[in-house]
Amino acid sequence: MSGRTDTIASWSAKLLYHVVKFAAVPLTHAMCRPHLSGAAHVPRTGPAILAANHLSVIDSFLLPALLPRHVTFAAKNEYFSGNPVSSWFMRLGGSLPTDRESARAAQEMLDAAAGLLERGELFGIHPEGTRSPDGRLYRGKVGVAWLALKTGAPVLPVALSGTDKVMPFGARVPRPATVGIRIGEPLRFDGDHRDARERRRVTDEVMAAIQRLSGQEYVPEYASGHKPSHGTS
């Protein structure tokens, strides 16, 4: 009986996702005026990891709203419990909440993401772990590599631009602006997901691919160690 209940709940969640997405697409185009390129790199079926730079709270919403396939993104818990606009965006996009302060919670999120990929779904992640404080691209955390090496799923580098104009740091409501989304060719990796050096190597390769697409200046440090610039807020 529980299996049937789980199936009905899963079907209901997917139906709600697509209903909300249908309603959100016109709003996305009106507010963000998105220019999407490279969508053909996203497989029609099967798993893939969308690894994107991170400029704004709305980043995790755009790809789920614009791509035809269901994309589940990881997003920090604060996006769900703080600003009601960001909370609405996250729930609309079907994001997966995660506690950045807890190593156990972070691993549980990765385990859940691996389960999605093993079921042939799409998973989105921001390897920087938090928004860029100044528009530059920061060192990636190794969760993306752990997922790629454990599941064998290809990684699609994604470069977002202009989203920090729609929702800058400190903004309470979105502002109209033009947003760019570039999706690169899939990257495939071999190696042991338990090997720290392999995880670091793969993560650095993913970040280099994102940087080539975005043109951002690269900073070989974690973004979490830098305070945000509020010049555009």
UniProtKB/TrEMBL annotation:
Domain of life: Bacteria
Transmembrane domains' residue ranges: none
Name this polypeptide is given: Lysophospholipid acyltransferase family protein
InterPro entries: Plipid/glycerol_acylTrfase (IPR002123)
Record keywords, A-Z: Acyltransferase, Transferase
SMART domains in alphabetical order: PlsC
CDD domains: LPLAT_AGPAT-like
MF (Gene Ontology): acyltransferase activity
Limits of the Phospholipid/glycerol acyltransferase domain: 48-163
